[in-house]
Design brief:
Length: 192
Amino acid sequence: MKKAGKVLVLLGSPRRKGNSAVLAEKIAAGAKAAGAVVETLYLHGLSIAPCKACFACQRPKSKGCSIDDDMQPVYRKMLEADAWVLASPVYWFTMSAQLKLWMDRCFALPAYGQDPFAGKRIALALAYGGEDPFDSGCVNALRTFQDAYRYAGAEIVGMVYGSAMEAGDIKANRALMKEARELGRTLAATVD
């Protein structure tokens, strides 16, 4: 086994101490314990505009996305990372708007590096307010990630998700906290 060099955590909640952020923090702790270097980005604090469908990023010899905003350094960090942790609350039956903006802008990522999704390992962390991952929409969000990354050629290593409403409530789910930490260890380890 070799260790992942870098893990990039992308927090898609407007709450810095929200439940999905708590899960992501546990994944990060597990990855650090396994030897990875971890960097966390709080997307809500960044200026990321929606894709404007100009297709500048898709043209031959493209220099990347035509939108000059905070996504530019995020692209570089994504390419440098060996693995990503995507964390989001479930809002209106899918991921948060913050994470969806980031995901839509990933359309331009191939302009920054050839086949940038290939070999990326991804962990997912989702928190929802309902009692059930199906009727809360959590499964819809998970399915979106599964479909997108299967198409792009990245590997979803694992996912943790649970029900909690108030910020930090998810900490009471000790089994889930342990599962999140173990997911971080798994994310940081890869078979040669």
